[in-house]
Amino acid sequence: MDKNISALKSDFQNLSGLLQALGDEKRQEIIIQLLGDESCSGLQVGELTSATGLSRPAVSHHLKILRDAELVDYRSEARKNFYYVCPKNEKLTQLQNFIGDVIQYTDRMEES
Amino acid sequence: MDKNISALKSDFQNLSGLLQALGDEKRQEIIIQLLGDESCSGLQVGELTSATGLSRPAVSHHLKILRDAELVDYRSEARKNFYYVCPKNEKLTQLQNFIGDVIQYTDRMEES
DNA sequence: TTTAATGGTTTAAATATTTAAACCATATAA
DNA sequence: TTATATGGTTTAAATATTTAAACCATTAAA
């Protein structure tokens, strides 16, 4: 049984921030850097500036957007902040489910 | 076995247009209207303007972005165009797979 | 305590996106 | 043929986003 359209609509609104965050190529680059972090201990702003070619305030700005979207978090150690993509990411799971629901809807269209 | 990070990166770039298209609330409203189309025969620009409160050129502009993202298509009948979310949507499936890959990556982080 | 390093915030400028007005094209109806 | 309806395109203005410069705060080392 399909989800009703208004549930789909509110899920969509709920995921707006994440989708917007994921749509920017600079933020994609930051995410890729974070995912590729071999140390698995998080990356500092300084490391991300050299990896992405962005200024520190720009990286900081994008990290804030990614944090607000609940995709990225950080851990403070002394005066250093280590950023990472949240493991067991709730928002990503919600997005995955949402996309599944939309696909169900489009397939329903096909049948009629 | 995880996808390597550069494959993930190129998938991400490939999905930029779709993610950007999905991130805008006006376009979300258009998509919701299209998914909720009871007739299953597509909606005209005029129907979308009244449903979303946007002007015709604005709707037309957003529809173009959605078409470029390969999420929406249309069918011409005489001088009328009927827009719909593409059934069996390839891009949505790609996005679903991509999100799954990213989740795998973040879970790998958790383990170490 | 002074200095250096990390990094967040504010503000203003640059850039990109969104919108409406005005226009053009096409197809049907009168 | 002459309206009328649908809707796409172009352009300029409004709005939002992104960026860098300048600044502030905190921590650790000298």
Feature tags:
mainly alpha; Arc Repressor Mutant, subunit A; 2 strands; DNA-binding
The percent range for helix content of chain A is 55-70%
**Into which percentage range does the β-strand content of chain A fall?**
5-15%
As an assembly, this protein is homodimer
Shape of chain A: elongated
Briefly note the structural class of the backbone of chain A: mainly alpha
What's the CATH class label of chain A?
Answer: Mainly Alpha
Main β sheet profile of chain A: 2 strands, antiparallel
Q: Helices and strands of chain A, in N-to-C order?
A: HHHHHEEH
Parts with pLDDT < 50 across at least 5 consecutive residues of chain A = none
* Tally of DSSP helical segments of chain A: 6
The CATH architecture of chain A can be given as Orthogonal Bundle
User: What's the alpha carbon Rg of chain A, rounded to whole Å?
Assistant: 17 Å
Keywords (chains A, B): DNA-binding, Transcription, Transcription regulation
Protein name (chains A, B): ArsR family (ArsR)
Organism (chains A, B): Eupransor demetentiae
Pfam families (chains A, B): HTH_5
